[in-house]
């Protein structure tokens, strides 16, 4: 970086140099070839062309590394400028002819062209950055552009005509030229401004040279017309600065960056080594040629106890190495004339005086000139490793001793199954000559041992168990159980196998016997559905037999446990089982039936029995016992019980009879109860003893034959009880054959009730039918009688009303008779119907709560007229206790009316008194009607209430009435659930009394 | 002028009823069975119908049901005049839709009083 002052000074110096050179040489207007001024001009122009091409070259070739499009573009620009400047130089009139005749005009045109190209492209370059227009700015493309441009330039020279463009006239440069040059100056100035702005933003120092260069070019343009030499020098200077800029950015700056990067890298590496040195786990010690410590890392401090300050500069051997090995160490560790790295394991001192085993690596340390400056020691504390090795050695000896002395046979084979090593037991079994023999020599019988152990030698398995028969040295055949373990060397290659073997001949025989026994037991248990179990009370371990799985329906995966057992128990029985177990643990016997639910949902019944064993302190130790599936047995039992109950509780008498003798072998409860004999009495009785309908010709054997023929007989008969009573029966007789015996089963049913019911139902049917017919008959009769009566009574009344004319006295008397006769007939019909209805049980009462005084008054109103006519006084004597009764109101009135009208009717001619009395007698209402009439003779009292019975035939004529009144009245009272009677004294009077229940009974509503 | 329809199959009884009613000043038409009664009721609107129950071809209860279903007879009284005089018969007829019940044999003066009661209601 050069200062501005220096630059300005340089520019002024160059300017002055040009100025004075120009002054010194008298420049003529027309420079001639070979003149001093022309030569200087040519040289200076040539120099600027050289610089321009240099710029192109450096830009072009540094592009491969810099990849800076701007400088490539600038390089291209300077190629163009260089070409044009060259043509400008070659076109001076004093130069040899350049294709076409040279002239000042021609040279000025090329100068102008070079300046325009310079200005425009320089401005363009301000907008091109490192990677702008990457597609276009490629060398291949630019080469074509360069070639085309060069060709155009040559063409323009070749076809040049002075008349085409006037850039230079008699007075010097034309105005157009000056104008264009001014414009280019302005453009370059503006480009400078752009670059300056960019420099402000990025601080790229190469730009400042570019700016300086361009400023100097501007200056050269300005002074060109006045001071030509200075301008030439200045332009060279300007180009040089631009060249510098490119050099700085493309050549110098990369080297600077590289230097910085290298510096950083070096620092980092050093730091890394320092870290390594300080943080290494091994002690790293460096000593100089005099064996004095120069470096001492943290690990060294830790291992030896000395700090770096304490030990630096001290003699290593004297401090670390014990007296006895110092001389040796001096020779090997501190020897600096070595080429290689040495390793050894000396004993060294710590600061606290303890010795340690160390592993140590020593190597030379040299300076840049390969002169030895000392040694580095890398030391590891291997005390522990040494101890471990020592221990291993001891152990290995001990192991060998153990292996030799164990009773198990231990044999080692190589990869070819040849015995390599054997312990004492091995020699004893196979003989002293076993080593070097192949294992198969000792095999007894055909065996697959080699196949089985194959994976061991193939590296698939580490340990294999095998049982194989081997021949002992005494020739006996023994079964050995082998554990074969693979042997590998340190690289992991299989070298053979180490096998331990035990003679299991006897235990195997026992095992087989045991297994057979177990199988037999298991078979027995399977048949009996019985499994055994043993429960360790203390550890809660439970063992059970194979059969237990089947009994409880558990899968083989289930581990025997108390929970697994309890889980299968039906919830209803769980408490029972737990209690039984508790009891058992307290010494009670354990024998319990339980319902279980198997995991598949099937239910079953299991019987569990067990025994508890106690220790000396009477604590339970273990419990063992059996479980048995008794589902089927229970079901059978239940079925049997069900059948037994069915038979016992049957409502039919069932007896089993011996077909040969006819003697009863068994009978159910009903059989004994229906016949009145105890069961014991029944057994051994004969069928004849109670069956009474058997004909005299009855033969038991014939009977049995018939049963055998038919298989089943269905008979009716009669049985006699023990008390002599007889009842009808029906019997179903079957012949059963079982277990080579035949038995007759007689099912006897008492059909007394059925017979009775059948009879009754028949009778009922008849009665119902009769009653219905009677009812219809009564109803029709009533209707048919009333229809003509209506005409009789109606017409007689019509006559009596005299609407169709007067009647004489006699006629009126006849009409009265007709009417009276009709009315009497009507009463008679009503009474007969009532009676019939009562007798048929068809009289229906409509029970309601009725007021006694009111109803009595209503009835009295009905008879008042009649009483007055007969001169009879009516007296009421009502008890206040009797207000209401429940009765059929119409019928109640009918009863009272009948009694009252009778009492009035049967009074004496001169008149009398009729008294009505009501009373309450408990639940009954008592009504009495007394008269002071003729009375009734004692012997007539019974006839009084009979149908159609008046006491003497004269009465009807005398008193009227149908003679049915009292009969109906009494029946109505009785229909209400009451009763009626008469007290009378002949010639004094009669009292008719009836009782009615105050509360009607439901049952008496419809009698 | 009150118009009555008497439905009665027994000539003697029909004669009696008609005599009584005519004597009382009613206009009296008669039918001898249920179907005839319905036909007559269709032809003319009567102020009151006396209906025997036991009738040939169609009984009084059925005839009453049909007549009562005729729009203009909804409020016309139909009175049973029948020899069915057992207990429960009255209730049976009233339930069947008849408006009143006069058992045979009739008491002439009571009969007239009842009819006058119905006719003065109009």
Question: How would you describe this structure to a colleague?
Answer:
- The complex is a heterodimer of chains A (1007) and B (122).
- Chain A is of the alpha+beta class.
- Chain A contains 29 helices and 30 strands.
- In chain A, helix 3 runs antiparallel to helix 4 (104-127), helix 24 runs antiparallel to helix 25 and helix 25 (809-840) runs parallel beside helix 29 (965-975).
- The radius of gyration of chain A is 78 Å and the shape is elongated.
- Chain A starts with a helix and ends in a 10-residue tail after the last strand.
- The model of chain A is unreliable at 1003-1007 (pLDDT under 50).
- Chain B has 122 residues and is α/β, with parallel strands linked by helices.
- A five-stranded parallel β-sheet of chain B has the order 2-1-3-4-5, with helices on both faces.
- In chain B, helix 3 (60-69) links the parallel strand 3 (48-51) and strand 4.
- The termini of chain B are close together.
- Classes of the chains: A alpha+beta (1007), B alpha/beta (122).
- Chains A and B meet through helix 24 and helix 25 of A and helix 1 of B.
The CATH superfamily of chain B is: Response regulator
Mean pLDDT of chain A: 83
Give the name of the CATH architecture of chain B.
3-Layer(aba) Sandwich
Radius of gyration of chain B: 13 Å
In total, the number of strands of chain B is 5
For the record, the count of structural domains of chain B works out to 1
Envelope shape of chain A: elongated
Please describe the structure with a list of short key phrases separated by commas or semicolons.
heterodimer, A: 1007 residues, alpha+beta, six-stranded antiparallel β-sheet, five-stranded antiparallel β-sheet, 29 helices, B: 122 residues, alpha/beta, Rossmann fold, five-stranded parallel β-sheet, 5 helices, globular
